[in-house]
Each structure stands twice: as structure tokens, then as C-alpha cells.
């Protein structure tokens, strides 16, 4: 009995040791110059695979229309696309050798990880095709698509963030204009909030960092915060604006009823990308969100009476109102692609064909990534969408820096911010210093 | 020595027969040897080897010595919370599952009427797929509008933030584990039905009441089954992943959608377990070396727990077994 039990226990323990670590040692190459032809033999049919993240019906319709335009212009190339793909899946696919030819990601934070050998360097292909990246694409977008001098991706539409507000609720509360400063945001949020003994019948603004697009990075751009210093070290503790921001957010949380009460209300919200989104469903009066929400509200047939405005700024930076955070969709070619010439043809079309870019941007309400697209007379004139075009073009608008391990520095800070907003952290300065150390160690561990 | 002398004295014919016997034994053993070698020893050796390498699964690995070990134990923020959570689950969840499983087993074996109905009622939840069961539980236990808290509110009782309050997240997961107790119930039922009726009768004649009959007749008889339940429970709990990650995802509101990176452990790292770290380090951060360190820690813990429980005399396996 005992021996059989021992065998059983050993057998049951085996999977623990086999969990993750039997990877082979197939060496890859860091993103260097791909030795591929930049033109495709038009007589030879080629099929390429394309992984992207769009998932909502109107988004899929838009990307499929773009693919159809490409296939019409390149009859020998067929594009097989798969949607709703996350960055984890992209990186795992490429590492396993079963990745697609062309990939698209919504997370510019991961450019550092992509440039670490997963995607090919596009500079030689741009050069061979006679494309000057600095004049063809919006300059800040070119910056967030390269890491340490390797242009491993190109921008395909941008995402700017703004404030959505419920006009009917504003009118009912006697508020005539959207808040422009953090003080106004707090005052309006309190005015628009109707608390009950156990929760809320209406919440002016959900300040918790777990609230979908309320990620610290999306707010902190309003201060122009420096995440990493010039040597790549975390600089959160030494930047007084970080402390100021966290204190402001905590004060807002406490003023609106405290983290526990807000968290209980947040648990009743539907999914972010659905008609049950709390802003669309009228559970909150204001929300920080991306420009895509304009299209989602239409697609979901939401009856919310809304308007958009830039995200408010700190009081002392009131003159910079109009700024925001910008990220975007990026496109690159997998290092495992065996059809790199056709993949480049498709990438080039996706990122430079003005008409296609404008049609795509209009359908999913994204910001075009080329000056030609932004200047196009065909670009949507919807005033709610135009807010985001202006935020994207504002000189004070910023993005987050690329790092070798993607957005790990943001995740570590975010985890700390969750603890701070809920009152678990008493010594803010010491906590931020600890986060700095964690970020530096995580970056050093990734560097190898 | 005697064996050596004897082997030296055997005839060539006998030696040939013995060699043939050995080869036959090896031939019969070969599927097991092959399986163990390929599926256990080689991966285990690889895991140990990669724990000393920096390997991002795309560039060639490089030797870094003990750096991954030092990083995981002294610098990686998630390791100790995950270790504490895993040990909490091992101690509390496994104990409660065994006690609850045995209790339900006793109940349904001793019921005079309706035992079939109770067996079905307690076994059915075990058949629910873990992901579906966890999502259903997260909705039922939703602190804002879940059925459980609504009922508790009507009864003027406290309304915990089940999967949103760090103090209630693990008890919530434990409740889920107890709900799906059907597998243990069946095993205990079989063991309880195997206990000799004569022993119960003899104990009753000696004047033993129900509790004494359970203590002195039932428990010693089913002790190997309890040991089995505890050991397999510990090993299963050491691999606890799906329910914790799904509950965290549903409760945090973060959909695993493009552009949104869900970090396991919501709320405040309370549902973070060591297997999640293996996945997160290995396949989200592509830090293979550190993932291997965590996998080895898990393996060592599982072996240590098993050895402790099976130690003759002081473990669950008694002297007489």
C-alpha cells in the first residue's frame, strides 16, 4: 500500500516539474537586416497569415475591408487573418516557430519585447521601397515603434485618450461644461454622484485604477511624467509629480466613498468592450476612454447622451489643457515568416495607403498614423471624434517609453497604485523607492 | 560476498539463462523506463539546467549561475505572496476538502432514505468544467449584485467582498472547492462501505457509541484512503491555477483582450499561486530561467509534503501499515 501510494504521489508530482521549462535551445537572431527581396513575383500565388487584435463586429468589418482592398490590388497575395489575438499569444506564437507572417498589436509598451528579435528590422525594407519614415508617418508614432534604434514595427492608426461625459447627467446637475482641471474633475464628480447606504445610484466618476482605461499611465501623461531616466532606470520616487498624482487620486477615491465602496460598485459593471460598459449603460457620468468608444457607442446602439473632451490637467498645468496620452496599433513582420516579401507588401499597404487608412480610421474611429491621412478631406468630421484628433496633435501629448520587458514597469507601478488607493500603503515615499528598485531589477533580469 | 562467490560458480548455461531473464525483465520494463526517462527525468534535468540559464526563448540561452535563484527568492515581488497563498490553500483547502468529503461520504452512506438523491446532488457539481464553475461562482458571489450577498443582505448579515476583498478571495475559492467535492465523496463512500459490519457490531456489543465507533473502527480502517486524499489533494492544490486566475479575471473586470494585460493575483495578490508564476514568468515575461526555479520549488515542496505525511510512525501512515 505504502509503495503504491509513494508511486502515486511521485507520478502526481511529475507535472509540477514539467510545467514550463522544457524549451529547446533553437537560437534566434536579434532583429537585424532581413535578407529578403522587397518585391513579389506577381505571377506566383502567395498566402500570408495575419494576426490582429480587433474583435468587435464593426472592427472586424473594417479590417476585412482593408484586407479585401489589398488583395484586389495584389491579386497574387491572399491574406488569412485571425482576430482577437493578444500580445502574449503573438510572442508565444513567434517563439514556438508557428507565428504568423504579419502581426499587429495594440500595445506600444511591448515594442521593446518585439524588437528583441521577435520582429524583423524594417529599416532596410523602408529604404529599399524608398519610404522616408520621418515624413511618411506621424513623428511621435515613429518613435514608439522602434526600440534602441531598431525599427521593428510601423504605426497603423493611433489611440488617443479623452474624457467622455454624459450630457444629460451634467445638465441635471447644473454643470454646463466638462471639467478642465483636476479640481474641477473632483468637484463635478462629487456633484454628479448619488450615494445610497450601500452603494450608488449614480457615480460621477470611477477613479479606481481597476476601471478599464484608468490605468495610471493614461492619467499621468497629464503631468508629462518621466517614467524612466535617460539611462533606463526607474525615476518614480524622484519625480514629485508622481507623488502629487497618487495623492490626488487617493483623495478623489476617499471623497467619493472610499475604495471598498467604489470597488463593490465596480464589481457590478459589465465588460469593457460590450454594451454593458458602465458609461454606455449610464452607471457613471464621466469616463476616461479611447477614441474607439465613439464607434462602440454607435455600434452598441447605446442611448447615452454624451460628448467628449480632453482629459483634465493638474491645476498648475491648466495652460496645457488639451493634452493627453497617445498609444497606437503597430504592425510588424515576424522573424519566423517565410513570406517576408509578401508580408512587407501587406505591411506597406496597411501603413501607407492613405485611402485605406482613412476608411479604416473612420470605421473604427481611430487616429490615422500618417500626416497624409490626418490631412485627408475624407477623414470623419464627427465632433466627438475630432476631440481625439486634436489630442493626438497636441504638442504636450505624450506616450510611455518602451522597455525591454514590455510594460512591466507600468504593471509594477500599477500594483503599487492598487495598494495605495485602497489604503494599504502608509509611507508613499518609501513605497515608490521600493517600486523603483523592483522595476530596475526586473529590467536587469530581462536584459540577461 | 556470498552472492559474488555463487555467481562465479554458476555454469555458463545458467548465466545465459539469467542474462536472458534480465533482458526479458528489461524488455517488459522498457515502456515504463522510456516514459520515465522521456517524460520525467529528461524534463526534470532540463528544468534544473535552465534554472541556471538566461533564456528568453528567442535568443540563445546564456549561463548565469545562481542569478535566477537569487532573483526569484530575494527580488521578484510575486514570489513570497504566491508561496504564502499556495501554502494557505494547501493547508486550509486540503484539510477542509478531506473533512467535508468524509462528512458527506458518512452522510450519504448512513442515510436510510434519499441517499441516491444526495449522492447525485453532491456529485453533480464535480462534473461542471472548472472555468464555467468558477465564472458561475464569481457571479453568484459578486459583492454588488450577486445572489449570495443579496440573500445575506435580506438576512441582515455581513456582505463580504468575496473575490474583490483580499481577505475573502481565498475563502471564496475554498467554498468553490468544497462545492465540487463529488470526487472525494465517491472515494470515501467506497471506503466506508468496505468497513466490516462485524467490527461495528462487536464495538456496539462492547458499548461503543457512534463517535467511538467512528474513532476506533472507521478511522483506522479508512486511514490509507485519508492518506491518499491528503497526498493527492496536496499535489493537486500545488497545481492550483485555473480557478484562481478565472476568479481574479472576472472579479477584476479586466478582460484578457488585446491591449489589456491582466496580471494574476487580483485582489492585491491574494489569489496569486506558484503555478501562475510559472506561467507568467515563462510565457508572459519569457524569463524561462526564473520560471524553472519556481517549478523546481513546487516540485520540492510537493515531495517534502508527501515524504512528511508518509513517514512511518509520525506521518499519516501508521506503524502497522
Overview in brief:
Chain A is α/β, with parallel strands linked by helices. Chain A has helices at 2-18, 57-73, 87-96, 111-114, 123-128, 133-136, 139-143, 167-172, 182-191, 216-220, 240-255, 259-266, 292-299, 340-352, 354-364, 371-374, 383-393, 408-421, 428-447, and strands at residues 46-51, 77-82, 102-105, 154-166, 194-195, 200-205, 284-290, 306-309, 326-333. In chain A, a hairpin with a 4-residue loop joins β5 and β6.
Task: Give structural notes.
- Chain B: This is Multiple sugar transport system permease protein.
- Chain B: It is found in: Cell membrane.
- The complex is a heterodimer of chains A (448) and B (321).
- In chain A, 42% of the residues lie in helices and 12% in strands.
- Chain A is α/β, with parallel strands linked by helices and 448 residues long.
- Chain A has a domain of 217 residues: 3-Layer(aba) Sandwich (D-Maltodextrin-Binding Protein, domain 2), CATH 3.40.190.10.
- Chain B has 321 residues and is mainly alpha-helical.
- Chain B is 72% helix and 1% strand.
- Chain B is built from 14 helices and 2 strands, in the order ααββαααααααααααα.
- Chain B has a two-stranded antiparallel ribbon.
- In chain B, α5 packs across α9.
- The model of chain B has no long low-confidence stretch (mean pLDDT 89).
Keywords:
heterodimer; A: 448 residues; alpha/beta; D-Maltodextrin-Binding Protein, domain 2; nine-stranded mixed beta sheet; disordered N terminus; B: 321 residues; mainly alpha; MetI-like fold; 2 domains; two-stranded antiparallel sheet; 2 strands; membrane (chain B); ABC_transporter_permease (chain B); MetI-like (chain B); transmembrane helix (chain B)
Structural class of chain B: mainly alpha
Mean pLDDT of chain A: 88
What Rg of chain A, in angstroms, do the CA atoms define?
A: 24 Å
The name of the CATH topology of the domain at 5-159 and 327-388 in chain A is D-Maltodextrin-Binding Protein, domain 2
Query: How would you describe the oligomerization state of the chains in this entry?
Result: heterodimer
Fraction in helix of chain B: over 70%
Q: How many beta-strand runs of chain B?
A: 2
CATH class identity of the largest domain in chain B: Mainly Alpha
Q: What string gives the helices and strands of chain A in order?
A: HEHEHEHHHHEHHEEHHHEHEEHHHHHH
Return residue spans of chain B where pLDDT drops below 50 for at least 5 consecutive residues.
Answer: none
Shape of chain B: flat
Strand residue percentage of chain A: 5-15%
CATH architecture of the domain at 5-159 and 327-388 in chain A: 3-Layer(aba) Sandwich
Q: What is the radius of gyration of chain B?
A: 26 Å
Tell the overall outline of chain A.
globular
InterPro entries (chain A): SBP
Organism (chain A): Motilibacter peucedani
Protein name (chain A): Multiple sugar transport system substrate-binding protein
Family (chain A): Belongs to the bacterial solute-binding protein 1 family.
